[in-house]
Sequence to fold (230 residues):
Amino acid sequence: MKFRPFSFAALILVAIISLSLVGRSDAVLVIAGVSDGDLPGGQPRAIFVQAVSPIADLSIWGVGVANNGGGTDGQEFTFPSMSAEVGDVFVLAANANSKSFFENNFSDPFIYFIDNSFVVSGDDAIEVFQDGTVFDVFGDQNTDGTGEVWEYKDGFAIRLPNTNPSSQQGGFDESDYLIQNGGFDGRDEIGHVALFAAVADFTPLNPIPEPGVGILALLAAVILLQRRRR
Ligand SMILES: [Ca+2]
Ligand SMILES: [Ca+2]
Ligand SMILES: [Ca+2]
Fold:
């Protein structure tokens, strides 16, 4: 069998591209924020999660709230079988009032779920699960957040751009978030909206660098060079 160097190189390239495409299809859902308001009943109480890659089937993803440093409660909510687009923001509201707060005051195309398990107060850690394994975490499941750097009592935390889920960087890092502990304290609804609107911009996504992009660019360059030589 005759072996031409170029076909071998092409074969390698195809293999690398296939691998990179497998990597690209790794869907990810990250914690985008958490809110413990100061309106009556402590509203709005909500967890924000965002799809940073397309997700074909959300039902392998779930969320849990580890309350008061009591350790993980495991997955307390499972998403239904549905797909997600890049940039989709899911607002996991503790109750109808918390949902209404965002629905009435923000034009963002949030996708809402209401569930008892989303009753967060500023000392609770948040876990996002993929296939039953913790994929992203906010806070420490085994530590009551009171007095911790990640406390968000009567306030909120919002993920900063270009930060990765905790599973991809060795654990939770509070510097990945803008945290306003007590930020909502004493504010009325308009005050809540004003503060949240000023900081919580979900439009610039937090894209996770994908090695596949570089390889695809390289492939494009190779093809262009080949065409020029012909
Ligand atoms: Ca509160
Ligand atoms: Ca819980
Ligand atoms: Ca709590």
Q: What stands out?
A: Residues 11-25, 204-215 have pLDDT under 50 and may be disordered.
